[in-house]
Amino acid sequence: MPIEMTLTSLDNPVFQTYMLAASIMLLKLMFQPWMTVVRMMKIGAGFRSPEDLKKSPLNPKPNATQLDVIDYVDRSRRLNLNDLETIPGFLIAGFLFVLVDPPLQLAQILIWTFVLARAAHFVAYITAQLHDVRATFWTFSSLSVIAMTGYILMQVV
Quick one: fold of 11-156? Predict the structure, then answer.
């Protein structure tokens, strides 16, 4: 069964919604490691590998404590890992969702729920909110991907 090219055209508002949301999520995925690097450089610590203790232009005064786990840096790393666990699934499910031609309103609700929940999760994590708060936002993002995937399955089975 050939894919209708109109589904993956910017003339399709569902595809447009997905493209905008996917771009935002890809930027989030790519900028989070930069946040970790900035935090590491700001405090001169939070490095992970033994070779990072060698003297270099970026580390002129190495010392063994630079390999200690520093929450300020590690929190950003954990955010990055969480993004790596969630955003790729959204990107794949969202694209497949576009291909089954869902109603625009359903697509907008599920796609933007994911994006807003991930943004709220970021704020909750970076401000050290309770697990319950973070888990609530994670749950909304996860459920939106599950709903998209369920809809896809209902259309193809």
Answer: Four Helix Bundle (Hemerythrin (Met), subunit A) (1.20.120)
